[in-house]
Amino acid sequence: MLWLRGCPRCGGDLADAGFGLETYVECLQCGKTLTAEQEAAVRSASRRYAARAA
Ligand SMILES: [Zn+2]
Measured in angstroms, how far is the CA atom of residue 40 from the centroid of ligand 1? Predict the structure, then answer.
């Protein structure tokens, strides 16, 4: 999963990262990893977007 311009620090692009059950969301530009709260926010926003597009 990729979220364009979703980084709260730099406005960069966020991507799913991690390995196995240890997953997290990381900014491709500044390397920031989101907190659990920030990650939940971007994931729920993408679900709303997907529902609207369907
Ligand atoms: Zn960033």
Answer: 17
pLDDT digits (tens, 9 = 90+) for 26-39: 999 999 999 999 99
User: Would you give the DSSP letter of residue 15?
Assistant: E
pTM: 0.75
- Cα Rg of the chain (Å, integer): 11
14 CA from centroid of ligand 1 (Å): 7
Query: What distance in angstroms lies between residue 34's CA and the mean position of ligand 1's atoms?
Result: 9
CA dihedral 54, 20, 4, 12 (to 10 degrees): 160
